Amino acid sequence: MLKMLFKTVIANMRHVQFWKCHLRLPWLAFLILGFAGILPLTSAQAGTTNYYVRGVLKAVKPGEHQLVIAHEDIPNFMEAMTMPFRVKDPAILTNVAIGEKITFQLHVTETESWVDHIQSFDTSQSAASGPPTLSKTDFEPEVKTNSAATVGSQNPLRNYKFTNELGQQVSLSDFRGQAIALTFFFTRCPIPEFCPRLSRNFEEVERKLRTMENAPTNWHLLSVTFDPARDTPEVLKAYGASYQYDPAHWSFLTGPKEKIAELARLCDVKFDPDNGLFNHNFRTLIIDS
């Protein structure tokens, strides 16, 4: 009976935490953690791009210094969707009202982003329905300790054929005997602290293992989209190419939304198909199969 043991790394914006579980091949987890550490957020202002944006404030998260905003399309950067945005000035968090229509400035560097200059604006300046939001996703993992998620050998999802970026049918059982690092993402996320950071970590792990002398070869990286309506195999392949991925060791998977939701649940990742919010923390599962 093949037993798949998960080791979860939760790399928030400032730190990394472990889920403890048995792992016979710890080197992949070590590399994931190592590169999460060498790709920190910075406060450098050089190369900052600024955007003027309109939206509706959906939530305030004081503990995370975030505002959740349903924003309109940001030309040449980001489609209309609902996303959490970081604020640097904590006073902003107490000077806004949920449901308020606002304008704000979004500042983006290579490694971080934040919003400020938040102001209310006349509702007549926007569409009566407000800015559109993405549908059917909520990704907010619950942090637990001394726990491990397991996909048992009797679980039919092990053998379910997802579709990779090459249009090929693959299942988790195809990677039997390999150490797997698996994460969830979506290609339209341009916020540097979120999906791009996860992908940069994988890119660095792949580069390091490729150049390491006598490096193990029984490993594979899996990036699973939770935006399957937009992330087709062609889109995923182009995204992978932007990170110089090697399809022999890194795959981008898509599939029916209900199967992705089931996989997320088995990985102990909350996935609410009715919330309409892409809101996710870092979570990479290290699987010793």
UniProtKB/TrEMBL annotation:
Indicate which residues the UniProt annotation says bind Cu cation.
Answer: C189, C195
Query: Which cysteine pairs make disulfide bonds?
Result: C189-C195
Q: Name one GO molecular function term.
A: metal ion binding
Which Pfam family is an annotated match for this chain, by its short name? SCO1-SenC
Is Metal-binding given among the entry's keywords? yes
The answer to whether the entry has keyword rRNA processing is no
Q: Which UniProt keywords apply?
A: Copper, Disulfide bond, Metal-binding
InterPro entries associated with the record: CusF_Ec, CusF_sf, SCO1/SenC, Thioredoxin-like_sf
Q: Which family does it belong to?
A: Belongs to the SCO1/2 family.
Name used for this protein in its record:
Electron transport protein SCO1/SenC
